[in-house]
Automatic annotation (TrEMBL):
Entries under HAMAP family matching the protein: Cytosol_peptidase_M17
Annotated localization: Cytoplasm
Function according to Swiss-Prot or TrEMBL: Presumably involved in the processing and regular turnover of intracellular proteins. Catalyzes the removal of unsubstituted N-terminal amino acids from various peptides.
Active site: 273, 347
Catalytic function, reaction form: Release of an N-terminal amino acid, Xaa-|-Yaa-, in which Xaa is preferably Leu, but may be other amino acids including Pro although not Arg or Lys, and Yaa may be Pro. Amino acid amides and methyl esters are also readily hydrolyzed, but rates on arylamides are exceedingly low; Release of an N-terminal amino acid, preferentially leucine, but not glutamic or aspartic acids
Protein's name according to its UniProt entry: Probable cytosol aminopeptidase
Binding-site positions, Mn(2+) 1: 266, 343, 345
Any one of the GO BP annotations: proteolysis
UniProt record similarity statement: Belongs to the peptidase M17 family.
Length: 497
């Protein structure tokens, strides 16, 4: 999509020429109140604004949008009051409340050329992310694209735009753009986004960002022994790839490996999935999309880290060339895996990629994937499951939740390892039962992580794709989760090791 142009304004929003001005409202016991940032606008209404809003039905509840004609009070014709919900304490709202309200406002101002937002008075970074992501659309395949996203947004920088304001605007704009990049990948249909074209697009983005780029095609994969990627990708006419994107920052003290599942379409293979809802398996590359966007973001924000993304890409199809239940694959690095179900394909391509990533000797490894239906059963559509080494797992889960990508730490129970024992090979790709499916996948992945690497596995099977309507700053379709979690983790490692 074309992202809106963003700027800071020191104007009080009363005299500013724009198509609309956005202010925040709060839900109180005594009715709707105005959030900080709306003071000058309120004064222009001579104190009558809360009463007027109430007459228009405003309550201040989260994501409520109320339009107020303002031509005789403000330089703009339209005032948009967007609900933040109940404040935590006296007038205090969380960053996520601001992000969601800003998201609702970003959707509400579609079609307008220029708007100003007072939500930045509460939290500039959250207002920027929410507004840009709320405005996100993906209309490339529509003959009629409908209303264009808002052209320009000016954020109120009360008391003058400081260096901190400018830095926050820049960082959060880049973060929002990274999320949009990941969404674009997920929303691109699988006839246009297949391993070869996905690798080309990733390489192009990487080059533009000044990254080191390496793409292994099926020949190179065969030569180097990537049995997992080749096994899964073998059933498709469109052969698999492995993409590596490397960023080395200034004074990089820590090395972080990112790995993301890039199944461009998951039919299940010979263990084929039911037809109903299968189209959503075009989002089975959400993890890959997120790590590609994140390593590009790391370069844009010049994190003082080395970040290397290793991204296996394959299409899981049934055909005469497809791998089958009963096959034994020799993975990159030499471990063997008996395939008992070709629909448990993600862990097979990830195993290869994790072993490759660990050859670089990273301090940390973050792997993310739309890995199991069991994640959705356990945690629902909007909470990611985080597994891995305990300390790092908890850090990732906490930082993810803190930026509004709800995450929950999950265990890797020891007893599940024996359930992955195979009659023929070093291990099997599934257990013989339905218990703890998300955890069993994590236990499988652990077998491929090198000793001493602090690692986290983020299962985003539910959160990567929004099958329902738009809400807050989350559009329909690809969500870009967990880009903001990984960005927060990278920033935290850069700051604290
Ligand atoms: N891509 C799916 C997981 C998935 C399910 C993602 C729903 C998003 C929404 C994965 O490859 C898969 O098919 N997993 C199987 C594993 C099973 C065969 C052990 C599953 O969860 O059913
Ligand atoms: Mn599958
Ligand atoms: Zn899959």
């Amino acid at each position: 999509m074309t992202a809106p142009k963003l700027a800071l304004t020191e104007s009080d929003l009363v005299g500013l020429a724009a198509d609309a001005v956005v202010i925040g409202t709060l839900q109180g016991t005594g009715g709707v109140t105005l959030a900080p940032g709306a003071e000058a606008v309120a004064a222009a209404f001579d104190g009558g604004l809360p009463k007027l809003l109430e007459l228009l039905g405003a309550t201040g509840k989260a994501e409520e949008v109320v339009r107020v004609p303002a031509g005789d009070k403000l330089a703009t014709d339209l005032l948009i009051a967007v609900g933040l919900g109940k404040p935590e304490a006296e007038g205090e709202v969380t960053a996520e409340q601001v992000r969601r309200a800003a998201g609702a406002s970003g959707r509400a101002v579609a079609g307008l050329k220029k708007v100003a937002s007072a939500l930045s008075a509460l939290d500039l970074g959250a207002a920027v992310e929410g507004t840009v992501l709320g405005a996100y659309t993906f209309t490339q395949y529509k003959s009629d694209a409908g209303k264009a996203p808002v052209g320009k947004v000016e954020f109120l920088a009360a008391g003058g735009a400081t260096k901190e304001h400018k830095a926050a605007l820049k960082a959060h704009t880049a973060i929002a753009e990274a999320v949009a990049t990941a969404r674009d990948f997920v929303n691109t249909p699988p006839n246009d986004l297949f391993p070869g074209s996905f690798a080309d697009r990733a390489a192009e983005l990487g080059k533009a960002a000044g990254l080191e780029v390496e793409v292994l095609d099926e020949k190179a994969l065969r030569k180097e022994g990537y049995g997992g990627v080749l096994g899964v990708g073998g059933g498709s006419e469109r052969q698999p790839r492995l993409v590596r994107l490397r960023y080395v920052g200034p004074k990089a003290r820590r090395k972080v490996a990112l790995v993301g599942k890039g199944i461009t379409f998951d039919t299940g293979g010979i263990s084929i999935k039911p037809a109903a809802g299968m189209e959503e398996m075009s989002s089975d590359m959400g993890g890959a999309a997120a790590v590609i966007a994140t390593v590009v973001l790391a370069a844009k924000l010049k994190y003082p880290l080395e970040v290397v993304a290793t991204v296996p890409m394959a299409e899981n199809m049934p055909s005469g060339a497809a791998y089958r239940p009963g096959d034994v694959l020799t993975m990159f690095g030499g471990k063997t895996v008996e395939v008992l179900n070709t629909d448990a394909e993600g862990r097979l391509i990830l195993a290869d990629a994790i072993v490759r990533a660990c050859q670089d000797d990273p301090d940390y490894l973050i792997e993310t994937s739309t890995l199991t239906g069991a994640q959705v059963v356990a945690l629902g559509k909007r909470t990611s499951g985080v597994m891995g080494s305990e300390e790092f797992r908890d850090r990732v889960a906490e930082l993810g939740s803190a930026v509004g990508e709800n995450s929950w730490a999950m265990p890797l129970p020891e007893e599940l390892r024996a359930d992955l024992d195979s009659r023929l090979a070093d291990l099997a790709n599934i257990t013989g039962h339905r218990f703890g499916g998300m955890l069993a996948a994590g236990v499988f992945l652990r077998e491929f992580v090198a000793e001493g690497v602090q690692w986290a596995h983020i299962d985003v099977a539910g959160p990567a794709f929004n099958s329902g309507g738009a809400h807050g700053y989350t559009s329909k379709g690809g969500t870009g989760v967990p880009v903001r979690t990984m960005a927060a983790v990278l920033a935290d490692i850069a700051a604290n090791d």
